[in-house]
Amino acid sequence: MYGYELDRVPEVIEAMHKPVKAKVDPKTRKIEKIEIQEEPGISGVSFFAPKTIDQLIAEQGIRPIADLAVLSGALPDDDLDDLVAEIYRSRER
User: Fold this and answer.
1) Measured distance CA(78)–CA(27) in Å, rounded
2) Which parts of 1-93 fold into alpha helices (H)?
3) Per-residue pLDDT tens for 11-61?
4) CA distance 22 to 2
C-alpha cells in the first residue's frame, strides 16, 4: 500500500485530480515528492466544453479520405469468419 507522511497532506490534497509526477521510496512505498504537471492544451474547462464537429475536425487535423480502398478489410471473409468463431469458442471455455 502506498502512503504519505502527515506533513505531506496539504501537498497531496492540492495534487488531487491533477496530473502529477510522484517520486516514491521503493522500500517504504511512501511519497517523497509530488510535482503537479501541466499538460499543454488540456484543461478541465476546455476538455469538457461542448464543441462543434467543425471545431473537432480542425483540432484533430482530420482530412477527407481520398482513396476508399483504405477502408476495405484486411482479412478475407473466410479468415474473418474463422477469427470470429475462434473468439466465440474461447469465450465458452
Assistant:
1) 54
2) 9-15, 44-48, 53-60, 77-92
3) 778 877 778 888 888 888 888 888 887 765 555 556 677 889 998 898 888
4) 11
Give the angle subtended at the CA of 10 by the CAs of 7 and 37, to the nearest 5°.
115
Residues in the chain: 93
End-to-end distance of the chain based on CA atoms, in angstroms?
34
| Other Cβ atoms within 10 Å of 24 Cβ, number | 15
6: helix, strand or coil = helix
Name the burial class of residue 25, with classes exposed (0-12), middle (13-18) and buried (19+) by CB atoms within 10 angstroms of its CB.
Answer: exposed
Q: In Å, how far from its chain's centre is CA 49? A: 18
Closest CA relative to residue 36, chosen from 53, 55, 11: 11
Q: Is the pTM above the cut of 0.70?
A: no
Distance CA 2, CA 25 (A): 9
